[in-house]
Amino acid sequence: MDTNSHVTVYYKDPNGVTQLVYGTEPAAISGGRSGVAEKTSLQVTILGNPVAGDKADVEVRGAVGESLKFIVSDAKGTQLLTKEVGQAAEVETHSLQLGKATGVYFVRVSTPDEAVTIKVVKP
Question: Its domain of life (predicted)?
């Protein structure tokens, strides 16, 4: 039976030390694309999560002078609210209406170049 050179197995012991137990370390990627997420300057914070009541207070930073779009969706993907801001200030704070039911909601905040989606829990 041939070994699979694409499989690498690591073990993390109870002390948090990681050891290679099978395979070889992956080679460094050169000249190609990797799956590393780019750092975003857009910062979105839900002020109090889980939320109390029917609204989520959202604070946005890192979008000065850009247009902002807020979309609130339920767990099924149904859009409940869309709100737009023409030109963002240094700190934008908005109170967004959620649905009446308890559960999970998603708040997506986007600029023309970036987007951040935050999960909101309504107990």
Answer: Bacteria
